[in-house]
Amino acid sequence: MQKAVFLDRDGVINIDKAYVSKIEDFEFCEGVFDVLHHFQSLGYLLIIVTNQSGIGRGYYSEEDFQKLTSWMREEFLHVNIKIDAVYHCPHAPEANCECRKPKSGMFEEAIKAFHIDAKHSWMIGDKPSDIDAALGIGIEQTILIGDEVQNTQAKYCVNFLLDTINLIK
After folding, report:
1. Which residue in 156, 118, 154, 151 sits closest to 137, CA to CA?
2. Mean pLDDT value of segment 34-61
3. Which is the most buried residue in 71, 94, 114, 133, by most CB within 10 A?
C-alpha cells in the first residue's frame, strides 16, 4: 500500500481566479514547489483532485482543461516534481454525480488505481467540500488552507500552503 497527498487544484496549487482554464491565467501559489518537493521526498504520491464545473457549465472545454493540466505537470517536472495523477470532475453541481466533491468518487478511483492506504494519506484543500470528500473515503489527515475555517471538519487549519510542511513529516 502506498501513501498519498491529495491536493485540490484551484486555491492550493494555483491562485483561485474562478474558472482558470488558460495558461496565461494560471499562477502557482506561493511555496507550492517547496511543499511538493517536501512531500515527494517523504515518499508520498502527489495526486490532484479538482472540481472543474466550468466544463459542465460550458465556460471552457475538456480539451482546454487537458491542455492546461499537461502544461502544469510539465512545469512541475522542470523542477523535479512528479504529479502522479490528476483526477477531475467536469460536471456542473446540478448533475449530482459521484465524482464531484464533497462526494468521494475521484478519491475512490485514485485509491484503487494506486493501491493507496487512506489511513496514511493526507488531503489539502481550501474548501470544506475538499475535506468532506476525503473524510468520506477514510482520509482522516486533512488540512484546510485559508479562511473558510467555519463549518469544516478539517483536522488542521492553516493560513498558507507552506504551513503544511510543519504538519506532514
Report:
1. 118
2. 97
3. 133
E strand or H helix that includes residue 33: helix 32-41
Give residue-wise pLDDT tens across range 122-142: 999 999 999 999 999 999 999
Q: Cβ(110)–Cβ(4) under 8 Å?
A: yes
Instruction: Considering the candidates 10, 84, 126, 130, report the single residue annotated as catalytic.
Output: 10
Contact criterion met (CB below 8 Å) for 76 and 34: no
**Helices and strands, number each (H, E), in the chain:** 5, 6
State the Cα–Cα distance between residues 29 and 26, nearest whole angstrom.
10
List the grid coordinates of 56: 459542465
- Catalytic residue flag (residue 132): no
Considering the candidates 8, 126, 130, 132, report the single residue annotated as catalytic.
Answer: 8
CA dihedral sign of residues 70, 112, 163, 8: positive
Are 124 and 143 contacting, i.e. CB atoms less than 8 angstroms apart?
A: yes
Model-wide pTM > 0.85: yes
- Nearest by Cα to 130 from 106, 113, 97: 106
Q: Is 25 assigned a catalytic role?
A: no
